[in-house]
Amino acid sequence: MAIPVIDFSKINGEEREKTLSEIAKACEEWGFFQLVNHGIPLELLNKVKKLASDCYKTEREEAFKTSTPVKLLNELLEKNSGEKLENVDWEDVFTLLDHNQNEWPSNTSGLKETMVEYREEVRKLASKMMEVMDENLGLPKGYIKKAFNEGMEDGEETAFFGTKVSHYPPCPRPELVNGLRAHTDAGGVVLLFQDDEYDGLQVLKDGEWIDVQPTPNAIVINTGDQIEVLSNGRYKSAWHRVLAREEGNRRSIASFYNPSYKAAIGPAAEEGSEKKYPKFVFGDYMDVYANQKFMPKEPRFLAVKTL
Predict the structure, then answer these.
(1) Coiled-coil region(s) at which residues (predicted)?
(2) Can you tell me the mean pLDDT for 81-87?
(3) pLDDT by residue (tens digit) across 17-54?
(4) Which of helix, strand or coil describes residue 140?
(5) How far is Cα 170 from Cα 55, in angstroms, rounded to an integer?
(6) What pLDDT, on the 0 to 100 scale, is given for residue 157?
(7) What's the CATH number for 5-305?
(8) Mean pLDDT score of the chain, rounded to an integer?
(9) In terms of C-beta density within 10 A (0-12 exposed, 13-18 middle, 19 or more buried), how is residue 108 classed?
(10) Where exactly are the structural domains of the chain?
(11) E-strand spans in 2-106?
């Protein structure tokens, strides 16, 4: 069993209906799929790969050696208790936002300019993907994007758009620690440019953990909790995790197109039909998620303050 791989270039051709159907099926049955021929230039992707790796080596690697997960694993090995580290991730991560560019890593030449360009391309792809979901769900064109951008004025987007640049360095005892603990994503649409050599990302499907196979230059799409709510449960957010590895420094660049913290999110179900989820403000949901990210999903929807 393998994650669906979909040729996105066919969305504008004679195979449009087939491609729409493939995406709908992947959203309904997996919550995860890979896009090839997605329109982001190959030259740009190669620059992102190289510069992200350069940045880790020059600006992040030394600090990771004295980080909390490394210290905790060393302590565990000294105790030789056979326990596993449950509440920590073997991950180095920094986040890129439009308004925090002065905090981006600054000692890797070309990184900032390249990531600005990459994020713009990914943002455009996110918009296209949301329009495909609109069409497949029978919603007006632009419905999901408008819901996420509540309060938008003069075309200025209010949705949260962040990029998480992660590395999962080699781990001496990968069976004792998680690369990233199992969770669903809180927000909307996630667009991941993952390592094309080292695996480790897995998605839960029918009770079985399935590898998200490295596919050169693909963009992995997964749907978050807010898409599950908007679709009234047709598109479930999928549980996923990252395994620690003994060899290889796995790279992962995930961009999140999430609602504005002030956006009101609820099922887009027709009047009179049963709504399986409450309506709430996304910021209130995030307050719940912050404490329950690695816990069962359903109680979050019950715990959030409803409108």
Answers:
(1) none
(2) 86
(3) 999 999 999 999 999 999 999 999 999 999 999 999 99
(4) coil
(5) 17
(6) 84
(7) 2.60.120.330
(8) 95
(9) buried
(10) 5-305
(11) 5-7, 32-36, 85-89, 92-97
- Pairing state of beta strands 32-36 and 5-7? parallel
Q: Cα angle at 19 between 15 and 24, to 5 degrees?
A: 150
Contact yes or no for 174/245 (Cβ under 8 A) = yes
Name residue 250's beta-bridge partners: 168
Q: What is the pLDDT of residues 246-276, one digit of tens each?
A: 999 999 999 999 999 999 999 997 767 889 9
What residues contact residue 46 under an 8 Å CB cut-off, 6+ apart?
A: none
- Nearest to residue 221, comparing CAs of 31, 1, 40? 31
Dist. CA 72–CA 52, nearest whole Å:
26
Distance CA 279, CA 298 (A): 14
Question: What is the C-alpha separation between 80 and 73, in angstroms, rounded?
Answer: 10
CA-CA distance, 239 to 303, in Å (whole number)?
19
In whole angstroms, what separates CA 99 from the centre of its chain?
Answer: 20
Cβ-in-10-Å burial (0-12, 13-18, 19+) of 14 comes to exposed
Q: Which of 254, 279, 306, 307 is nearest to 126 (CA)?
A: 254
CA distance 58 to 56: 6
Task: Burial-class residue 284 by CB neighbours within 10 Å (0-12, 13-18, 19+).
Answer: middle
Q: What is the secondary structure of 246-280 as a DSSP string?
A: SS--EEEEEEEEE--TT-EE---PPTTSPP-S--E
Q: Which residue has the tokens 């105790």?
A: 79
pTM: 0.95
